[in-house]
Automatic annotation (TrEMBL):
InterPro entries: DUF7619, FG-GAP, Integrin_alpha_N, Secre_tail. Pfam families: DUF7619, FG-GAP_3, Por_Secre_tail. It comes from the Bacteria. This is Uncharacterized protein. Keywords: Signal. Residues 953-1086 form the DUF7619 domain. Gene3D superfamilies: Integrin alpha, N-terminal. It comes from Marixanthomonas spongiae. Residues 1103-1172 form the Secretion system C-terminal sorting domain.
Amino acid sequence: MKLRILLFISLIFFIKLNAQIGFEDYTIIDESHAVWGIKSIYVIDLDGDGDLDLIFGSSNVGINKIGWYENLGEGQFSDLKIIDNEAEDITDVYADDIDGDGDIDVLSASQGDNKIRWYENSNGEGEFGTENIINIDASEVQSIHASDMDGDGDLDVISASSYHNISWYENLDGEGNFSSEKVIHSIPSNSVYSGDIDGDGDMDVVSTSYQTISWYENLDNHGNFGSEQVINENLEGFAIEIYLTDINNDGNLDVVSASKSDRTIAWYENINGLGDFGDQQIISTSQFDTESVHTNDIDGDGDMDVISSSSSNFSRIYWHENVDGLGNFSTSDEIDTNNSGPQLVFTGDIDNDDDIDIVSAAVEGNDIIWLPNTDGLGSFSTRKNIHLYTRDPKGIEANDLDADGDIDIVVVSSYDDKVSWFESIDGEGSFSSQYIISNEIDAPIQVQSVDIDNDSDLDLVVSSERGKIYWIENIDGQANFGSVNYISNFSESFDIADIDGDGDIDLLTSDPIGRIWWIENLDGLGSFGERQDIPGNGLGGVHSADIDSDGDIDFIASGRNNSNGFVYWYENLDGQGNFDTEKIIATENNSFSSNFPADIDGDGDIDVIVGNYEIAWYENLDGLGNFGPKNYVSSALTGPFPIIAKDLDNDGDIDIVSASFIDNEIAWFENTNGLGEFQYQYPPISNNVDQVDFVSAADINNDGRIDLLSASRGDDKVAWYENLGSLGNSIHGYVRLDSDLNGCDNKDLPVSNALIITNNGTEDFATFTNSNGNYNINVNEGVFTTSISSSLPNYFISNPLVHTSSFVGLGSSDIADFCVEPDQTINDLTISLYSLDGARPGFSSHYQITYQNKGTTIMSGNIEIEFDSPSLEFLNSSIPISSQTANSLTFNYSNIEPFEIKTFDIEFSVNTPPVVEIGDILFFSATINPLNNDINEANNFFSYNQTVIDSFDPNDIQVLEGEEIYLEEADDYLHYIIRFQNTGTASAINVRVKNDLDPNLDWNTMQLENVSHANRVEIVDGNHVEFIFDNINLPDENTNEPESHGYIQYKIKPKSTVDVGDSILNQADIYFDFNPPITTNTVSTTIIENLSVSDNSMESVSVYPVPSTGSVYVNSHTKIVKLQIYNELGQLVMEKENNQGVKEIEIHKLTSGVYTIKLIDESYNKTIKKLIKK
């Protein structure tokens, strides 16, 4: 069930009949699927389903991934599945049963952090746990292997390091707990392998070191190795890879090697089975810069052949046949050529047809492919993709390709030359993994689906950046596609239509310089004739339509001619493709980048929409192609392209959809009266796209509403946007507190921030009550049940529990009031302290205190603020002070109602150096009294440690709890403040702040503390939060600096499932009007068990439990040697000192109340904590 939350604060709300519709975006594939710089591959059955999966390790520009692709059967692979993305500069991966539980685990080596790790396959189906470290000091480790080195029946690990050692690590218990490093030989090495070289029943080791190949005898089957035995120390090239296999079928393990620069692939015969090796025997020296080598029986003749790859700019894969089973090899057989650069190779039966296929991956790119062995004899077909990804998607099409009644998606991506499709799994918007149709078209950019060959299924027409156009046949109507059929060159933009009225589909095309042709489908079977020239210019694209209402296909074209932009239409004079010269629709000084034909004004003829620096439309006045003047639509988008027209709001008229490559936005414009008066709809469909190139429309989820799709190259994303329909009905009401238990009326207190949820059985909508207790929820048609959510404290009862509303059609509203009754007397006060700007030496610093009554009774008392003196000097506050000391302030409050939130501000002056230096920590605490009888005394106290800075970004996010919290603190709130400032040169009319919550945050616990300006908040799917400040009119800093700022304060709890090591990230995107977003810094809070800060840090010292009745404990990485406890009057009441460290102090003799603890470490660093004695 999808949850959509709309929070309204100080918002005046109204509904019109043609109400705004909503959209929700779903990513089909994006850059998160990308894998670049593959350093190692391994093929094995990872999930125990009987077919071979692929494991890889990749590292590129700081992005590191260890992952795998599941073989779904017959060589069709799943999406990327990540195992780890923390290993740095990965060099090798390997897989075997490390913990002896019968499934396949994964090993990795990474030279960036000098670690060897393994990952447990926790369920045998490819679900992996966190890393298990084998070695954290394997300097520049290059290669790993697993074998039973000590004869105890479990797998140990061998490694080679280019820095110093060949080593092994004993699996101590067979469950993956390893010993420290055991050095076999202290020599730089880049490849290692193991096997029984001397036939004595134990595992020996072979390795390469620069220009030397050597082996090491396992002397006693316990991992005690002999000295180096050189196989060849005179290689002319740098040895890069080595294998042990029986090349000549004599039962002994021979050595196969590959070396760079000398282009040599060779083998060495184990002459007597005892490890005495013969001279180098050349397999090949013909390939340039060998990159990788693997061995297997490629042709099924019972002997081991060799596969290799070269690392030239146009990488090649070869196989070398062992022609007689004795190690005599044929000349190299080139089986694949591509432009992906250096390649890795591996072998295995990928499609389960009992022969050996080849797997390859690009070292410097993102290609991971396999080559099917078509006959089991070494004849290979074209490459098939394993890595599923679209690089630079340019075109998208939605249609039912497999004739199963739902909408599938076709995508063309120019960088990787792919035409691919995604099958609709359930007809509701869930899509399969990517299926590759073709990668033979160079830089495809546009695709349309249509029945080219009149066999009643949907074929594809594709154009490319290279000016060529093709069609691909849907062979069986089930989306099994044939080969690519060339149609013509000099074609880039195209449209499809029956130009000559003979009942088949022809093509209308324009080339990159604007020339226009049409191409006839000669026989209705996809045999196309020569281009037929149409005088004109179509640089901005061509679209076919019956402009003059005579029943044949005309077309429109737009672009630039000399110095003027133009929009023309061309009449099909005889319905057979003989076109008249251009007829002017419009000319302007600016080039028209896009056009689209549609009946905008509902009069039954075709009007024309155009885009350049703005969107406009031209009315077809008489249905004969005589066009009126320009009708302005909008200039909200910069350079709108492309443009399409559909009835998005189901009101019977045509709306406009457009996208901006520059603004990174997809927007729609409502045809408000059906006659062509348009209104830009805010918020847009999406501004979560980067360099969007194309939009399309279709009913993706079969709900009767037109959804949208997009392809954007900046984030390599293909997405669809669900049309949620017109939210044209309203459920509204109030929530009040029946404190006198006689029923709710206007005299009762409003309940603010109560979460109200309504659902119609399939979708949920929700909102929070405002400060007056009122709420309003927009819904669509159906029967809705509305209630206060479970976030209402359990000492209140809702009356009624639920309310039912039924809507048929739009424009209706229903009232659902709720009366909240307390069933017990509860005191519960909370307090927080936020910094409104940075603390800088010599400047003033501003803070806000936020406090709330969460109980059932009216409360009065005082608030105590303690601060770091003499680092800070109090200047003023927004409410009067009741008392003051050198380091404390006391404020009185009275009559705070249940559910009420209040705030006040304090200003301090930050002292100058040397008293306050950059990097110093300022200590604050806030306590709200009374504590007695408070149900939760812990939230009556708040502490804040602020780092002194030299400057700050006015658009930022801060988490008050800092970079680390203890696991026992994970049930408490994290407090966030998002600060923004208009640093432009004019007032910002609207401001939006987008804040996607980390998956480890529980959105159900989110509470707004305070917001600087009237706004509304929308939360979608529980993690997409947007604060919307409509008509804020925020002045720029040059006009009114103090008023140019705004902020958002909220608190939220981590999920109950967080554990030690989890990190919670948070950042925000801030939009001022239609400007690109300002992305804030990213804050991170990590869950820790023990302190992971430097020895001299006091930032994360913890005192617990709070509150306490007996002993109090100190948790600190640095040694606390002195502890002092002060009462509320600032008097020292207890002190403990121990040079060996203070870990515990007994406080049972102290009277109940709030105390301050000063902790001092052995370097005389200090910190202050708050203690509550019950």
